Amino acid sequence: MPSVPETIHLIQIGEQAGAGSTCSAALDDNPWEHDADQSYGPGASIADPLPSDAPRQGVLPQQYRQATREELDLRIRAAKHALGEKLVVLGHFYQRDEVVKYADFVGDSFQLAQAAKTRPNAEAIVFCGVHFMAETADMLSRPDQAVILPNLAAGCSMADMADLDAVEDCWEELTALFGTESDAEGRQPVLPVTYMNSSAALKAFCGRHGGVVCTSSNARSVLEWAFARGQRVLFFPDQHLGRNTAKAMGVSLEQMPLWKPEVALGGNSETHLHEAKVILWHGFCSVHKRFSVEQIAMARQRHPGVRVIVHPECTMEVVDAADEAGSTDYIRKAIEAAPAGSVFAIGTEINLVQRLANDHPEMTIFCLDSIICPCSTMYRIHPSYLAWVLESLERGEIVNQITVDEATASDARVALERMLALAPGKPVMAA
Ligand code: SF4
After folding, report:
1. CATH assignment of 4-156+378-400, given 3.40.50.2300, 3.40.1010.10, 3.40.50.10800, 3.30.70.1120?
2. Are 124 and 83 within 8 A, CB to CB?
3. Is 390 in the pocket of ligand 1 (CB under 6 A)?
4. Among candidates 215, 346, 218, which has minimal Cα distance to 291?
5. Which of 128, 130, 199, 284 is the pocket-test mutation for ligand 1 (most atoms within 8 Å of CB)?
6. Tens-place pLDDT, residues 187-224
């Protein structure tokens, strides 16, 4: 099964008729062509506004831009071999295969941060994911370990939709509205919950305000914890994960107002906010937003009996129309537990779906969206950047290190530890 760039190539030369098309012709460009762009680059989130303070990648040395795939392969393997136990390479589920094949662990962001701890001799943790993931790994690793993001431009458009200033402004308005006194049951007026896909600064905000972090695997148990301690929850940045989870717990849509930053009271009336159970931040994932009810209907029409599983970052309508919704880990386990001959239509990032299809030739597994559109931000990591950071390490030079200042990290760890206390991390998949 080819990876996304290879599939794009195959489609372009007509060897894979009917496999769909790409969401952007620029996906076939080399990623360094877009390092200076004012966007996330080609892929699902290209149209999302890139914050002006988002990190930019410097110019990748020419030798890495010009190296052939075979040359890069040899150089990466040689550098990994030379660095030995001093290095651990982490690859996110959504990462392209050309990079994932060098990973020591493959998993979701939190699993990977935990996985790095199993390599105590590692002096460098190279995270082939996006910026917030590298931040989390830095906060959970030892101070003497360096966390490296091969391309600094690999951010996350969803995480960038909630910045600390905007959330603090929101908090100020909510505090003015609800006060700071807990009710008779000891529940604070509002309790902040942030999805793992957020900056360290927002995790720290939650730590400071009695809040917690959640993942797509444990969002329900985290919300149960939060409802026991807060009269209402402020959930950021992903409105869909918040809405889908709370709805499944019986919270009505009327009790889930949407908070639009930069609008007074987030665009809501005081009454509506007073009646709220979950205030949802206006954030979303551009990759998961692409899945639609029509795609599900089409999959059911073409494959009667198909099992449709979507990620909870998809819209509520899509989650309602699917058979199941679950995290990447849930999707992976559901497929592993299914008998040969099963047919799955999956609503999540294309690299993961293609890898699952590759790993399970005894089943039919396809992506709900026939247009190939990977996570733009994850796509910024290319073997050329990996070769560059590894060979730099070999020379004793640390490039692209991600560090979170200790004050922020200490508050963020409070929110992460609250989550861990109620939902311990799951084992990771060794690559
Ligand atoms: S898939 Fe969506 S949420 Fe995940 S890293 Fe990409 S943009 Fe962010």
Report:
1. 3.40.50.10800
2. yes
3. no
4. 346
5. 130
6. 999 999 999 999 999 999 999 999 999 999 999 999 99
